[in-house]
């Protein structure tokens, strides 16, 4: 059976900046000013590999609340509309992947085949490298509100989606066995 591989993960982006090492003039400590706010954007993402391993994709949804199995099921329905044929879904064992909406969706769509990564093995999931990439490029930024944060995120997403080389790098950076060919 030929199938798409889909690596799924979730994360959150807060208004608090990720502070990373940066450059500054000698003897001038860099300062990142920000509003102390724990507001966040939750995100669900999947990196896909086509059945013939020639094309990679990146699908993503943002939410302004914490994710539950309802949002995951909605995202999976979106993914099923985007991809034809069978989909092998690889994801972690977080509890929101096992709610009643997920079970109902899996029962209705036999072309979706979920498989779990081993516990405590984020290095196997290429989607973890997507989040690291976005958070690295947003480091030391200080969006003032969720709209500004979403705008910055969307810009990075558009750039990543256009680059097959970047998407391929997320898969090859993982500790999965080599299957893409170089």
Spell out the key features of this protein.
single chain; 182 residues; alpha/beta; Nucleotidyltransferase, domain 5; 5-stranded mixed β-sheet; 5 helices; 5 strands; 23% strand
Mean pLDDT: 86
Low-confidence stretches: none
Sheet-strand content, in percent, reads: 15-25%
State the separation between the terminal residues, measured CA to CA.
23 Å
Shape: globular
Instruction: Give, in spatial order, the strands making up the sheet with the most strands.
Output: 3-2-1-4-5
Fill in the CATH topology: Nucleotidyltransferase, domain 5
**Beta-strand segment tally:** 5
Give me the Rg, rounded: 18 Å
The fourth-level CATH homologous superfamily is Ribonuclease H-like superfamily/Ribonuclease H
CATH architecture: 2-Layer Sandwich
Integer tally of domains: 1
The helix/strand order is: EEEHEHEHHH
Q: What is the tally of helical segments?
A: 5
**Global structural class:** alpha/beta
Helix content: 25-40%
Main beta sheet strand tally, sense and closure: 5 strands, mixed
At the first level of CATH, the class is Alpha Beta
Describe it.
The chain is of the alpha/beta class and 182 residues long. The model has no long low-confidence stretch (mean pLDDT 86). The protein is globular. A hairpin with a 6-residue loop joins strand 2 and strand 3. Helix 1 packs parallel to helix 2 and helix 3 crosses helix 5.
Secondary structure elements and pairings:
Elements: E1 3-14, E2 40-49, E3 56-63, H1 69-82, E4 86-91, H2 100-108, E5 112-116, H3 126-137, H4 146-161, H5 164-173
Parallel strand pairs: 1-4, 4-5
Antiparallel strand pairs: 1-2, 2-3
